[in-house]
Specification:
With 231 residues, the chain is α/β, with parallel strands linked by helices. It is 34% helix and 26% strand. It has helices at residues 49-56, 79-89, 105-116, 120-133, 149-161, 179-195, 207-210, and strands spanning 4-13, 23-32, 38-42, 64-69, 72-73, 90-94, 167-171, 199-203, 215-220, 223-228. Helix 3 (105-116) runs parallel beside helix 5 (149-161). The longest helix has 17 residues, at 179-195. It is globular. 41% of the residues are buried.
Length: 231
């Protein structure tokens, strides 16, 4: 069983103008995330990388094809079931960290577990452990406005790991950081994926970051091509 499997995924959007043909963004893409491995998707802006990632995470639906998340076809679930399944099996990291400004670092990290109905005391212990693991032991009660960009993204990584998901999906996770902070976040994310035995699927424009991953795919002309890794 794969953390995520895409089977014949196509995605179209309406074109501008009345009577225009639909715009094909993704065309019959097949992909399997390997357990415990990191995979990067590279490609030009507008090639559909973020769209593909959103489909893989159940945040968007394909026009055709199936998305199998940890053995379950997303199309077989209603929206509530899909959200619950996603919260359990997938952690998300975005370029804009999307932290809640009125909540502390600790509260932001434990949010996914509270949503899942876990006990608050247990959530707090795990959230604190994750923050300590990522060097933020002294930032538990700080608010996002009191933190640097690199610290905020560390919190976003902790939040993604909070429910012990099978898969981490990351959309340009270092895109808004300076070179030094970006490098630190890259190393942290990849090391955590290995130590926690998670699968990582990331979209990035940074080829150096991509090449640190086990697999690299190029999304071009609506197709996904393996550039690095086992055939």
């Amino acid at each position: 069983m794969y953390p995520i499997e895409l089977i014949g995924i196509s995605k179209t959007f309406p074109s501008a103008g009345k009577g225009s043909e639909e715009l094909l963004i993704l065309d019959k893409i097949d992909f399997k995330a390997q357990e415990g491995m990191s995979t990067a998707i590279i490609g030009k802006s507008g090639s559909g990388k973020s769209t593909l990632l959103q489909i893989a995470g159940g945040l968007d639906s394909p026009s055709e094809g199936q998305v199998i998340c940890s053995g379950t076809d997303f199309s077989s679930l209603n929206e509530k079931e899909k959200a619950e399944h996603r919260n359990k099996h997938i952690g998300f990291i975005f370029q804009a960290n999307l932290l809640l400004e009125d909540f502390t670092a600790l509260e932001n990290v434990l949010m996914p577990s509270l949503i899942s109905g876990a006990k608050e005391s247990e959530c707090k212990r795990r959230a604190a452990d994750l923050l300590e693991m990522t060097g933020l032991k002294d930032r538990l009660n700080h608010y996002p406005s009191q933190l640097s960009g690199g610290e905020k993204q560390r919190i976003a990584i902790c939040r993604a790991l909070m429910n012990n998901p099978d898969l981490i999906l990351a959309d340009e996770p270092t895109g808004s950081l300076d070179e030094e902070n970006a490098s630190q976040i890259e190393e942290l994310l990849l090391s955590l994926v290995k130590s926690q035995h998670k699968s990582l699927l990331l979209v990035t424009h940074n080829n150096d970051f991509a090449n640190k991953c086990d697999y690299v795919y190029l999304l071009s002309n609506r197709k996904l091509t393996l550039m690095k890794g086992a055939k």
